[in-house]
Design brief:
By secondary structure, this protein is of the alpha+beta class. It contains ten helices and 20 strands. Strand 10 and strand 11 form a beta hairpin. Helix 4 runs parallel beside helix 5 and helix 7 packs across helix 8. The chain is elongated, with a radius of gyration of 23 Å. The mean pLDDT is 97.
Length: 363
């Protein structure tokens, strides 16, 4: 068994749990190396107390599981068979308390699982998994660095494509082509490219708006590589921009750099958020900073921690999260500068390296 599974078995012992069922595909990958999306079919990693773990997978995915999984006992169910009957058959001994992923199991599937196992009580398996994933190991950082390097290559390759008159969606199409060309598994999320007044929408949707000279162009993008994600935002000037837009950009850059400097083990997440927020407020942009200053990053685009003003938890060495202050003035313009940082014993290593000074493109 790998160290991650051993930690879960220790949790089960401490919590008097008879078995644990892991159903979130990302967690099955995290624990076994088998990355798969079963769609609506049942897939689960089962950890019976005192027994070896086993996987239940759709028959369609059996070969892939056998090639990838570190857990070697694998059972498969066909589309015409009952996966819960298989779960009941393979579980050794009576089950009283079952650990399940409460945030992933929908109610109908939860009922089927509880009936099949005979468990009378359940606890949330998500808690120990979140604790484990919070701190990234060297092998995870190595993969994330590849994902970050790849998206920065994509951004570098796309910028020469940007000219006044091209649409936001045309830029998105070029970016996602470049992602695949360079070996990304997928975009980390729906690629965001917003121009002019549309950039005031932090989660705006790219459309048919044509890029114009003299405005800002905001990119928020990332890729998936071997299950891990990158997430970077950069804002550019399309041709020369006026003094107001340049001031907005410089203010966000100052907030970004100050927040990164504030990162170190032992400080609260709230203090990091406040560092960026104070700079934006001092420049008169406080009301236009709409979001938290960052979020955890790894197997999912939004992981723990959430870096906002009410989070009094402490930063820990090995965490990875974003720093992404922004200014969003409705119907005018928006700026966001986002980096990925890895907490070290003395501070933070910035994993993203794409330049942050205001770059003029499209001319």
């Amino acid at each position: 068994m790998n160290e991650r599974l051993e930690r879960l078995y220790a949790y089960m012992e401490q919590s008097s749990v008879d078995a644990m069922l892991i159903t979130l595909p990302k967690h099955i990958y995290y624990l076994t190396g088998f990355l798969n999306e079963p769609n609506k079919r049942f897939m689960g990693l089962v950890l019976p107390k005192g027994e070896q773990p086993f996987l239940i997978v759709p028959l369609l995915d059996l070969e892939k599981a056998q090639l990838a999984s570190s857990v070697t006992t694998i059972y498969a169910h066909s589309d015409s068979s009952d996966p819960y009957a298989l779960l009941k058959e393979k579980l050794p001994g009576p089950i009283t308390k079952l650990a399940v992923e409460e945030e992933h199991l929908h109610v109908a599937r939860y009922r089927d699982v509880m009936k099949a196992t005979g468990a009378s009580d359940s606890v949330d398996a998500g808690e120990p998994l979140r604790e484990m994933r919070m701190v990234k190991g060297p092998e995870e950082i190595a993969i994330m660095k590849r994902a970050i390097s790849l998206i920065e290559e994509v951004l570098q390759a796309t910028i020469p494509y940007v000219k006044p008159g091209i649409t936001e969606t045309e830029i998105v199409a070029e970016m996602e082509y470049q992602m695949k060309k360079r070996g990304a598994d997928a975009p980390a999320f729906s690629t965001i490219v917003l121009s002019g007044e549309k950039a005031s929408q932090p989660h705006g949707v790219p459309g048919s708006r044509k890029i114009q000279e003299g405005e800002l162009l905001l990119f928020d993008t990332g890729v998936v590589v071997d299950g891990y994600l990158s997430d970077i935002s950069r804002t550019f000037g399309v041709g020369e921009v006026d003094e107001k837009l340049a001031e907005m950009y410089e203010t966000v850059l100052q907030a970004n750099m100050a927040a990164i400097k504030a990162v170190r083990p032992g400080v609260t997440f709230a203090s990091i958020d406040q560092t960026a927020r104070d700079i934006l407020a001092q420049k008169g942009y406080g009301e236009y900073f709409l979001n938290r200053v960052g979020h955890g990053l790894g197997l999912e685009i939004h992981e723990y921690p959430s870096i906002h003003g009410n989070n009094q938890d402490f930063v820990r060495e090995g965490m990875v999260f974003t720093i992404e202050p922004g200014i969003y003035i409705p119907q005018f313009a928006g700026v966001r500068i986002e980096d990925n940082v890895w907490v070290t014993k003395d501070g933070a290593e910035v994993l993203t390296s794409y330049p942050k000074e205001l770059k003029i493109i499209g001319v």
